[in-house]
Amino acid sequence: MTVEKNKIEMDDGFSEVVTLGIDDPLCLTSGECLSSFKIAYKCWGTLNGDKSNAILVCHALTGDQYACGQNPITGKEGWWPKLIGPGLAIDTDKYFVICSNVLGSCSGSSGPKEMNPETNEPYGLDFPVITIADMVGAQVRLIDYLEIDQLFSVIGGSMGGMQVIQWAVDHNTRVKTAIPIASTWRHSAQNIAFHEVGRQAIMADPNWQNGRYFETKNRPKAGLSVARMAAHITYMSEKSLTSKFGRNLQDREKLTFGFDADFQVESYLRYQGISFVDRFDANSYLYITRAMDYYDISAEFDGSLLAALDNTPVKFCIMSFTSDWLYTTEESREMVRALNAVGAQVSFVEIEMDKGHDSFLLECPEMFNIISGFLAAEARFDGSNSDE
Amino acid sequence: MTVEKNKIEMDDGFSEVVTLGIDDPLCLTSGECLSSFKIAYKCWGTLNGDKSNAILVCHALTGDQYACGQNPITGKEGWWPKLIGPGLAIDTDKYFVICSNVLGSCSGSSGPKEMNPETNEPYGLDFPVITIADMVGAQVRLIDYLEIDQLFSVIGGSMGGMQVIQWAVDHNTRVKTAIPIASTWRHSAQNIAFHEVGRQAIMADPNWQNGRYFETKNRPKAGLSVARMAAHITYMSEKSLTSKFGRNLQDREKLTFGFDADFQVESYLRYQGISFVDRFDANSYLYITRAMDYYDISAEFDGSLLAALDNTPVKFCIMSFTSDWLYTTEESREMVRALNAVGAQVSFVEIEMDKGHDSFLLECPEMFNIISGFLAAEARFDGSNSDE
User: Fold this and answer.
1) Three-state secondary-structure class, residue A16
2) Are residues B217 and B316 located together in one domain of the fold?
3) What chain B residue is nearest to A130 in terms of C-alpha separation?
4) Beta partners for B278?
5) Do A241 and B269 touch (CB under 8 A)?
6) In terms of domains, do A110 and A22 share one?
7) Residue-wise pLDDT tens digits, B39-76
């Protein structure tokens, strides 16, 4: 791994991958320690002289480090293509943007799919159960490695937003601004319930083989597909499902009176399930959903959100979407109220959009403008940004 | 089958089962006809001399004919124990109450689990795909058999409410009043999506064996359990899950950093899944969810709900629950608006209750009072009831 640290060029190839923790193991919330772990990441833009223009982008449950540009594995564009890039809200002409695959995932960072250096076989369920704090802990090591003292901003949607909040709480001197979008400060009972359905679907698949499917030719595709289908419903609003599909039939004029996908919405969901298994590892799905379910930023503070945020120097910009029923506006408002109560600087916008939770991944000019404006204001205040 | 038709006594044994359709096959929406089918049913109370006091109770997706009294199979009380009985809102001292297991289900009525009289083996997927209209068609045959011309009322919640609406539309001279609760006039894209997840979970289970599991010792328990878990989340409100479970741990003080049921909500859901497979047939789950997905009362009327309800002589009492996100108040309001637009008699109450869709099955004095009052008012108007 060779990177000219102060100037990392955009590239269209695969990610950089760095092995960390060798001299200083990463000790996890569970108490287990990783004495060596890999983090796959991508960077765009140029780190400025005083290293004050770095923005860390945190991905969601099934995301990866390919936030913008082309994803070399799928050949499709990254997952936040309209937000990050030259001249866009997160302007890679101004900012140095970093996105890393979270610990436990399956796109190059250490996780159940990767080789356990101690046994030279894939971890499977021997990979330690991780938390959002552990994902962030690994990101801190990456930022150390890139020799960046303080991030100009950390931004992310959904589980990405959980990481953002975790950064602000655990490492508040190392992040100037935090932008959690369509996110929450703790997973609710309903959130946990939906994830548990997905995990049970995977573990019920005989091909799962207690997580050791890599020893055979069979993968728990059917179970993972059902898990994805169940989750996908929670990413869309009832209204968007209705306006997109309603009761429209799929390539047929009449009901067939069978168990085929008569309705477009069935066909769409089946496609979501089937296409997902090609790009995602079932064990990683277990680990990451578990990390999300364990997430409660107040837990380490005797359940007090105020205590978690007390004295924070981080400036927050929080966004939610009216039609998001997975992580509702109310949950964002609880964050906002707590931040106000501790005298923190916070701006909050509930964006009117009817596409449900996944709105944060869609074309949303209002969100883009808010991010752009918030960053620009902070850069002006800071006086440190390259366009000043 | 011997029943003294004008006076059927309550009994604590199993249901009556009648074989129908022999002289006059039941032709289904699909075009297929059942030349012989069984309906299992229970009755409570006494049919009066002019047979004007009969109330048909329609059950929901996984319900059965044991609406009140003891369920002889589970040993538990029926599913509407506080609503139906002597002195209760549906007073069996006044009314003759009938509840039958729907066609396609698995509690004695013909369905995929039952023997196909033509082959002398279980139907499995050879059972024809049925609709809510077909369930009601079979109930009409039962009512014919009981020699009742007109039902005083038809009542049901959820899928039971769909049957109620179907009765009022298809057989409007045979039902005086209709009480659909927590129901809808057509299944939405989101409703279909959740059901499709359940079906895919069942069909992904290798033990399903294309529906012919009865030929082996294995049943698709894991798949059916996952289906039930996913559905169960939709029966509860986010608020009720939070107030019942929150993030409470299950019989432990700390997170275990594993994939056990750490949280109470996980343990609860797993129990819902596991206990369900003992009492329900996986193929019936496919058939009944399909019937619900096919349900759109306006479909036969070029998509016009008004046309479906035009000139109806049936008097409606519609109830919804504030916290029901499966079949929302808005869907009930659409029915109410349409009924008002066609000049029908309708009363509507949205009941403030935070328990979600399953509220209709719970202790709800407001609902009980509304039903009791509506039935009493109609009985007074009618002058035909036994207490006049």
Assistant:
1) strand
2) no
3) B257
4) none
5) no
6) yes
7) 999 999 999 999 999 999 999 999 999 999 888 888 89
Q: Does a structural domain hold residue A4?
A: no
**Percent of residues, chain B, with pLDDT higher than 90:** 90
* pLDDT tens profile B346-359: 999 999 999 999 99
- Domain-embedded: residue B48: yes
Query: Is the confidence at residue B124, as pLDDT, over 80?
Result: yes
What residues make up the domain containing B249?
A: 190-290
Judged by DSSP in three states, A273 sits in helix
Q: What stretches of A144-204 adopt beta strand conformation (E)?
A: 151-157, 175-181
User: In degrees to the nearest 10, what's the CA dihedral of B2, B4, B10, B11?
Assistant: -20
Of B250, B272, B290, the domain-final residue: B290
CA angle A365, A42, A95 (to 5 degrees): 50
| B301 and B284 together in one domain | no
Confidence (pTM) = 0.94
Nearest Cβ partner of B265 from A193, A257, A296?
Answer: A193
User: Which member of B196, B226, B270 has the closest CB to residue A266?
Assistant: B196
Q: Catalytic site residues of A?
A: 158, 324, 357
Mean pLDDT of all residues in A85-98: 97
B84 and B221 belong to one structural domain: no
Which chain B residues are Cβ-neighbours of A236 within 8 angstroms?
A: 190
pLDDT per residue over A14-55, tens digit each?
A: 889 999 999 999 999 999 999 999 999 999 999 999 999 999
Instruction: Check CB contact of A260 with chain B, cutoff 8 Å.
Output: no
Quick check: is B36 catalytic? no
Residue A311 lies in a domain: yes
With helix as H, strand as E and coil as C, how does chain B read? CCCCCCCCCCCCCCCEEEEECCCCCEECCCCCEECCEEEEEEEECCCCCCCCCEEEEECCCCCCCCCCCECCCCCCECCCCCCEECCCCEECCCCEEEEECCCCCCCCCCCCCCEECCCCEECHHHCCCCCHHHHHHHHHHHHHHCCCCCEEEEEEECHHHHHHHHHHHHCCCCEEEEEEECCCCECCHHHHHHHHHHHHHHHHCHHHHHHCHHHCCCCCHHHHHHHHHHHHHHHCCHHHHHHHCCCCECCCCCCCCCCCCCEHHHHHHHHHHHHHHCCCCHHHHHHHHHHHHHCECCHHHCCCHHHHHCCCCCEEEEEEECCCCCCCHHHHHHHHHHHHHCCCCEEEEEECCCCCHHHHHCCCHHHHHHHHHHHHHHHHHHCCCCCC
**What distance in Å separates the CA atoms of residue B241 and residue B250, rounded to the nearest whole number?**
14
Mean pLDDT value of segment A52-79: 94
Alpha-carbon distance B192 to nearest alpha carbon in chain A (angstroms)? 7
Q: Show the tokens assigned to A381.
A: 């205040």
Domain co-membership, A180 together with A251? no
Chosen domain end from A256, A275, A290:
A290
CATH at B32: 3.40.50.1820
Q: Which amino acid is at B207?
A: N
Residues B238 and B374 both lie in one domain: no
Question: In total, how many domains does chain A have?
Answer: 2
Q: Tell me the residues of chain A between 209 and 248 that have a Cβ less than 8 Å away from chain B.
A: 222-223, 225-226, 229-230, 233, 236, 238, 241-242, 244-247
What is the pLDDT at residue A385?
Answer: 46
Q: Does residue B3 belong to any structural domain of this protein?
A: no
CATH number of the domain at B236, please.
Answer: 1.10.1740.110
- How far is the C-alpha of A119 from the C-alpha of A103, rounded, in Å? 19
Does residue A129 sit in the same domain as residue A90?
yes
CA distance A365 to chain B (A): 27
Q: Are residues B165 and B264 in the same domain?
A: no
Which ipTM did the prediction report?
0.93
Q: How far is B129 from chain A (nearest CA, A)?
A: 5
